[in-house]
Amino acid sequence: MAVPKTGLLVLDCAEPQELADFYAALLGAEVRPGDELDVIEVVGAAGIHLALRMDHGYAPPSWPRPDDSQQAHLRILVAREDMDEAEREAVGLGARPLDTKDNGGARDTRLYSDPAGHPFTLAARAQRVSAGTDRTYHD
Question: Quick one: which of 107, 112, 124, 126 could link to 95 by a disulfide (CB 3.0–4.6 Å)?
Fold first, then answer.
């Protein structure tokens, strides 16, 4: 029998409260104290659960420079018809565009960095998520 587990994506940063506020606003989630002193969590509907950890020596990723790999990033799913609005919202909250070309159709993806430099992607999906559910988008 497998031991029950919960996955949690942890992002290191210099200012966890600032980054938690960014992701809470972007994802419609709430900020909560973490289980550890230097950790703040962002929790919301649809299974959102991130943690932001204070790292005093934090240096942001240098990707998308050609000599560096992307390693990991958040992929935030958005209804295709909401992509432009989601892009304006992300940038208004402090995201920096890295590549926002409109790929059109079901494969539309737009790449940004959060205020601490972590890459994330807004990716189009065909249908909207129903408010208040934990169901993800469907193609």
Answer: 112
pLDDT band, residue 137 (cuts 50/70/90): very low
Order of strands, sheet of 30-33, starting from the edge strand that comes earlier in the sequence:
9-13, 49-54, 39-43, 30-33
Q: In degrees rounded to 5, what are phi and psi of residue 131?
A: -60, 140
- pTM > 0.70: yes or no: yes
Beta strands 9-13 and 49-54 are parallel
The Cα 34–Cα 19 span in angstroms is 14
**How many CB atoms lie under 10 A from the CB of residue 103?**
14
Q: Please, are residues 42 and 71 in contact by the beta-carbon 8 Å criterion? A: no
Query: Rounded CA gap, 135 and 97, in Å?
Result: 28
